[in-house]
Design a protein that fits this description.
The protein is an alpha/beta fold. 20% of the residues lie in helices and 32% in strands. It folds into 2 domains: 5-90, Elongation Factor Tu (Ef-tu), domain 3 (Beta Barrel); 100-244, Rossmann fold (3-Layer(aba) Sandwich). Belongs to the ferredoxin--NADP reductase type 1 family.
């Protein structure tokens, strides 16, 4: 059972009608960038809980989470109604192995995400480890529409602070003049993703971290495996590490 703590909402930001970020003030145990915890609310005598990844860096006391308001969801509709000053339960102990400690050092790392699954990558990019471990960092964010591209200001700030960071959006349901159009899997297969950055992917120099909806993660794994890459395992290091975001 989770050792729940009461936290307080210190900020809420709506990016679109369904995408929002919550910032929570609470005492939590130290965590690693890429890990997740659980938020919960009580209603009708029941406690509804769900896992969410930290968006903030581990040394930032402002605990931030990036959410989508799912109409039929058990918790997100309740969280979407919270206001500044409201209380929310939080599990102070983080979980998960989708961290840079599980990824071998390499020349370049590709961070492939869809939707709110960009969250754990933003935590990594606001930490120091990734810049010590890789010479080039490629952040890829797949969304349906351009309005779903949240955190653009933060990404720009990170690019200014770390010239080795490059970013591209991949928009599937409309033209994307600022990046690529289609799906990440399509752009991975036809090589457009690497060409966009005028670079190449290869087994010797590339690592991949993949975080998103289960179908996207499954397809990317199949594509990378077909191209000769292998999944990272503690006993046998490979080239890609994955996290299914729900």
């Amino acid at each position: 059972m989770a050792n729940w703590q009461l936290g307080q909402i210190s900020a809420i930001k709506w990016w679109t009608k369904t995408l929002f970020s919550l910032t929570v003030k609470a005492e939590v145990a130290p965590f690693k960038a890429g890990q997740f915890t659980k938020l919960a609310l009580d209603t009708d005598g029941k406690r509804f809980a769900r896992a969410y990844s930290y968006v903030n860096a581990p040394d930032d006391p402002n605990l931030e989470f990036y959410l989508v308001d799912v109409e039929q969801g058990s918790l997100s509709p309740l969280l979407s109604k919270l206001k500044e000053g409201d209380r929310v339960w939080i599990n102070p102990q983080a979980s998960g192995f989708f961290t840079l400690d599980e990824v071998p050092p390499s020349k370049q790392i590709w961070l492939l995400s869809t939707g709110t699954a960009i969250g754990p990558f933003l935590s990594m990019l606001q930490s120091t480890q990734i810049w010590q471990q890789y010479q080039q960092v490629y952040l890829v964010h797949g969304v349906r529409k351009t309005e779903d591209l949240s955190y653009q200001s933060l990404i720009t700030q990170l690019q200014h602070a770390h010239p080795q960071l490059q970013f591209v959006s991949v928009v599937s349901q409309e033209e994307n003049s600022a990046g690529l159009t289609g799906r990440i899997t399509e752009r991975l297969i036809d090589g457009t993703l690497a060409r966009y950055f005028t670079t190449s992917m290869n087994i010797e120099d590339s690592q991949f971290m993949v975080c998103g909806n289960p179908e996207m993660v499954k397809e990317v794994c199949q594509i990378l495996t077909a191209q000769g890459y292998a999944r990272n395992r503690r006993q046998q290091p490979g080239q890609f590490t994955v996290e299914q975001y729900w």
